[in-house]
């Protein structure tokens, strides 16, 4: 499954060197989440994504997760490694 992550060039270089690191934020929602924001389509400033660099992330998901991600954006976020902070 292909996902995308919008970021700055400097952050992209760090990600490519050391990998993704979890962060906490609202990520275009009204809830607080911890994880890495991945989307199933390339997002840009019109959707609230900030940065001049777009990373493509190829994930091999098992059948169960793949079926769960065909529903809501929340399901896709959970499948992408998010955990909601209550």
Our measurement of the CA-to-CA distance between the termini, rounded to an integer number of angstroms, reads 29 Å
String of helices and strands: EHEEEHHE
Q: What is the number of independent domains?
A: 1
The 3D shape can be described as: globular
Return residue spans where pLDDT drops below 50 for at least 5 consecutive residues. 68-86
Commentary on this structure:
With 86 residues, this protein is α+β, with helices and mostly antiparallel strands. The chain has one domain (2-85). Helix content is 27%, strand content 26%. The chain is built from 3 helices and 5 strands. The chain has helices at 9-18, 63-68, 73-79, and strands at 2-7, 23-25, 32-35, 53-58, 83-85. It has a 3-stranded antiparallel sheet, with no helix packed on it. It has a two-stranded antiparallel sheet with strand order 1-4. The longest helix is centred in the N-terminal third of the chain and has 10 residues, at 9-18. The radius of gyration is 13 Å and the shape is globular. The N and C termini lie far apart (29 Å).
Keywords:
86 residues; alpha+beta; 5 strands; 26% strand
Q: Nutshell version of this structure?
A:
This protein is α+β, with helices and mostly antiparallel strands. The protein is about 25% helix and about 25% strand.
